[in-house]
Amino acid sequence: MALQNQIFSIQDEADFTAAALEVFAYQYENCKVYRQYADMLHCEPAKITAVEQIPFLPIEFFKTQRIIAEGKTPQICFTSSGTTGNETSTHFVADTTLYEESFLRCFRQFVGNPKDYAILALLPSYLEQGNSSLVYMLNELIVQSGNPDSGFYLYNFNKFADKIKLLDARNKKILVFGVGFALLEVAEQYQFNCKKLTVFETGGMKGRRKEISREELHQKLRVGFGVQTIYSEYGMTEMLSQAYTAVAPPPPFQDRFPLYSPDEENNVPLFIYPFCSGQNTIRRKFFAVLSAVCRQPERLCYFGVAALVLGTGKFFFSIYAKRTDCAKRKSGQRFLFI
């Protein structure tokens, strides 16, 4: 509990470094798979004095190994959606309360108070999959909303569309989370012109329809749902993390974020690299991958000290960054990584 409190009370660089090193030491001591991996890289805790030296565990291990702290019993087991292949990852979670506090803090910071919305979740593929961390998160947000109109939808698109129109007629704030292919089905069949509608897409076609670019998907959804902006949420089962395009203002720690040098073969970073002038190659790689968060999630690298999680400590830390394509000099879209 002391370590959990420390994680959620980070205020500055010194707090961040201290918490990261303590989490690393905990994971090394208690997670056998991670310890073996770190030993192979000669990264014992006694040698690690900076965040930049901490190794990341490849997410492939979540597909082949049981990764959990020794002596812990999982309260729940989440599985990935398998969008990057047939083989899925499994995350054995020993303490769900840490995940809950993390995603609730994240949601309130970057979206708002759940009580302000009727939350509609159109997630057929995730509901069919079972053991989805996204479904778990949205179920809790629906409960937190305290709104009897909040709820999940499978393929009952008529009921989903009718609910949106009913809530709009009542001048209610509506928050929609939906998988890309299902949102597109709705956008093609119905037309909306809501006053207080916010739409988050949580992924692409999941093998149900022909893949299209994120830009094309968002354009079609903007027209169908009658909104100026489609937001994105992308989560990673292996880290119990979320990446948002932000609706709410940025947090005060927004300028502190590291850069990473991805392992090209496995699409996972091995170490953090500090952001500084002269590292143009690393900078380009970082923003190229960051820009692909929703357009090509299968190419996404796993960012942040959150990648230390890899057991049951589940260290979460908010990293806020402006999305900037260095080649095209575009900016303004914001992502949160926890």
Give me the Rg, rounded: 20 Å
Q: How confident is the prediction overall: mean pLDDT? A: 75
Number of helices: 11
Lateral strand order in the biggest sheet: 4-3-5-6-7-8-12-11
End-to-end separation? 19 Å
Number of domains: 2
* Classification by helices and strands: alpha/beta
Shape: elongated
The parts where pLDDT drops under 50 for at least 5 residues are 252-338
Report the major sheet.
Answer: 8 strands, mixed
Descriptive terms for the model:
338 residues, alpha/beta, disordered C terminus, two-stranded antiparallel sheet, Rossmann fold, 35% helix
Task: Please tell me about this protein's structure.
This protein is of the alpha/beta class and 338 residues long. The chain folds into 2 domains: 2-75 and 246-337, no CATH class; 99-236, Rossmann fold. It has 11 helices and 12 strands. It has helices spanning 2-7, 13-30, 32-40, 61-64, 96-110, 124-129, 133-145, 157-169, 180-189, 214-225, 280-291, and strands at residues 76-79, 90-93, 118-122, 151-153, 174-178, 197-201, 231-236, 241-245, 259-263, 268-273, 319-325, 330-337. It has an 8-stranded mixed β-sheet, sandwiched between helices. Strands 1-2 form a two-stranded antiparallel sheet. Helix 10 links the parallel strand 6 (197-201) and strand 7 (231-236). Helix 9 (180-189) packs across helix 10 (214-225). The two termini are 19 Å apart. The model is unreliable at 252-338 (pLDDT under 50).
